[in-house]
Each structure stands twice: as structure tokens, then as C-alpha cells.
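Late entry, evening session. Most of the bench is empty. Finally got around to the prediction I had been postponing all week. Sequence below, unchanged from the version circulated by S.P.
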Amino acid sequence: MATIIDGKQISQKVKDEVKREVAAIVERGKRPPCLGVVLVGENPSSQIYVRNKVKDCGETGITSRSFVLPESTTETGLLTLIDELNKDKDLDGILVQMPLPKHIDERKVIEAISPKKDVDAFHPVNVGKIMTGSFIFAPCTPSGVMRLLDEYGIEIEGKNCVVVGRSNIVGKPMALLLLHRNGTVTVCHSKTKNIAEYTKNADILIVAVGKAGLVDGSMIKDGAVVVDVGMNRINGKFTGDCDFESCFEKASFITPVPGGVGPMTRAILLCNTLRAYKTNNK
């Protein structure tokens, strides 16, 4: 039976660390870090995410500024706002909540954000820095997973690490972060044949596909570390990509859904905002 990796507890620890550092900055007579959050349209899930991010900022002393734009906002209008935020010396991080309305090119928007203020780490410059290992900040979810592994003393070096999923947001950067820590990394995806052949060999298995029940206990080896990044709503309840009960019986460590990786994603956003502040105000 596995030890449950408590993302809520560790995320609170991270937020407490950020809060102490922000308080020290303010005590020195400096302004606190500032995060600008841009929301376009009325996607209910996005509205909830933005409210939570603003709430997290408030808890840690980070200033948040919300820019709520109507669904009808043009691509040019959004790019103009981003340009203004890039030039604002009192704003350290910019987060544009995805998804955007279909008439706006997300790639153009991501590339318009200054790499120095790109706290999501989606800009091609930051993606390239993650590849080379010279990054200031990495995407929030993979960074959160790494922090969880470290907090629970899970060794990465030399371990067989299998990442199921190849998204730009989680799968690809996750694989690179593990590689930088000397893990032996395999990436599986929707075109991989017989995924179980790979997952059964994983010392550390990270599943980030968005398909409920994709991995069950028969697909993991005894003592594996299972990190479930998936978040699926089934009959009004959230569930991950792994069948928790069957994996729990065989794993050494496992993240629950909810309460595992999710809280860490939000906490790392605060860390990235603080890092952007320190980098931009040297």
C-alpha cells in the first residue's frame, strides 16, 4: 500500500515560503511582486481558475491585477494590452488564462508576452531555456511535480521515469526536468503501442493525458511512484488518469486527485512570479 503524496500540505509549505520572502521584500521598503492575470471571455472554469490565482496572491502578499476582457475582444486588442503590460515596470508576471476565444491565435499571444514576465514559461525563449537547462522558471505543473518528489525524498537520478503524455504544458517539459535530474526518461503518447510495456518498467510514472482510468494497477510494477496529473470530471466528481484504488495497492507513493498535483500548480505560479520579480529588479 502506497504513501499518499499530500499536495495540499506541500503547496501550503510553498506558499508560506513565498509569503515570508515577500514580507521581507516589503520590510526593506520595496514594492511587493505583482502578477497581471488576463481573462478573455466568460468560460466558467477559467473564471474559477482566475479567482483562485487572485486569492493565492492575496494570501502571500503578492499584488494581483486582473484584466477581464469581453469575448468580443479582438486579437489586436489583446496584443495591445500585453504590450502595455510588458512595458509596465511595476508588473512582474503576466498570465493569460487559456483557452482563448477561437478567433484569437493562442500562439501569437504566448509569443507576445515578454519572456522575462512569462510566468507560465510557455514562450519559445523559455521553452528553449528549459531544453538547455538554463531556465529561470519552468511550467508550473511539471515544476510542482518535481517539488513533490523532492519533498518526499524520492530519488530521480538513475531511475526509469515514464511520462505518459506529450503536451507542451506538462508532458514535454516534465520529461526535460526529469532528464536534467539524471532520470532515464521515456515518453509515451496516444500513438505508443502497448503502453503497459513501458509503464510496467517505470520506477517513477507520471500520467498526464486527460483520460480517466487510463492506467490501472496491472500496468505498474510493485513499488512504483505514481504521479497522476489528470483531472477529469466524471458524474460530477473529479478523478485522475489512474485508477487510484488498484494503483494504491501496488505503488510506494501516489498522488490523489484532487489534492495532489493541482494545488502545487497554483503554488508554483507564485514562486515563478517571485522569481520574475527578483530577476527583473536586480
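Two things to note before I forget:
The longest strand covers residues 34-40.
DSSP finds ten helices and eleven strands in the chain.
Will write this up properly tomorrow.
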